[in-house]
Amino acid sequence: MITFENVHKAYGSHEVLKGIDAEIGKGKVVCLIGPSGSGKSTLLRCVNGLETYQQGRIAINGELVDATSSTIHAIRTRVSMVFQRFNLFPHRTALENVMEGPIHVLREDRQVARQRAEDLLTRVGLAEKIDAYPASLSGGQQQRVAIARALAMRPEAILFDEPTSALDPEMVGEVLQVMRSLAEEHMTMLVVTHEIQFAREVADNVLFLDGGRIVEQGPAAEVLRNPQHERTQDFLRRVTHPV
């Protein structure tokens, strides 16, 4: 569904992505892992045109992703993104946050959008919080609203950029549980994460990035349990058994 072909991205003279080649199959969960600064989030943001890559090709169902093209707006309606910091509108309730995209971007009828937003907030365990403002919600609750908001756009795929990194440890589980349920429903997901256990349990495939390159990729069970590359082995040893 998502294809990367020799993708390069640089900020000035600093090359962040150095020739990325990968494929994300429809209905698959792929986790991007690796040290900070390895290019994971940049690669994710290139998928829906939040960053512009300079060389290579990214395509979604065969359609080229070009941040400078008018087609990028249509692509963003098909590929939702969940950020680290929630990015909810503080002056709108949880319900209004979820309704916003369908009404103003998809031009859905307000009543239809409201019913779907209520259903989605129930789905992520927040039925009793539909009238709450973000400031009154915990980090985990805000992130679940953000996931409901992403789902409200009826996406073909969802991009997650370290969705639990800004959360207190006790709130991580409630967000990962929602993501597990999406995986069980075969939602295509590309996830930047440091949650190795989540990747073990949920991911179909794992891409390990280091220094702007994919050092190792393959089925999650193989890469995470029996990594072949020395750099992957060292990284997993450090994150699994931190000093």
How would you describe this structure to a colleague?
By secondary structure, the chain is an alpha/beta fold. The chain has one domain (2-88, 157-240): Rossmann fold, CATH 3.40.50. It has 9 helices and 10 strands. The protein has helices at residues 40-47, 72-78, 94-104, 110-123, 139-152, 169-184, 196-202, 220-225, 230-240; strands at 2-11, 14-24, 29-33, 55-60, 63-64, 79-82, 157-161, 188-192, 205-210, 213-219. Strands 6-7-8-3-9-10 form a 6-stranded mixed β-sheet, sandwiched between helices. A 4-stranded antiparallel β-sheet has the order 2-1-4-5, covered by helices on one side. Helix 4 (110-123) crosses helix 5 and helix 5 runs parallel beside helix 6.
What are the defining features of this structure?
single chain, alpha/beta, globular, 6-stranded mixed beta sheet, 243 residues, 9 helices, Rossmann fold, 4-stranded antiparallel beta sheet
Topology at a glance:
Elements: E1 2-11, E2 14-24, E3 29-33, H1 40-47, E4 55-60, E5 63-64, H2 72-78, E6 79-82, H3 94-104, H4 110-123, H5 139-152, E7 157-161, H6 169-184, E8 188-192, H7 196-202, E9 205-210, E10 213-219, H8 220-225, H9 230-240
Parallel strand pairs: 3-8, 3-9, 6-7, 7-8
Antiparallel strand pairs: 1-2, 1-4, 4-5, 9-10
Helix pairs in contact: 3-4, 3-5, 4-5, 5-6
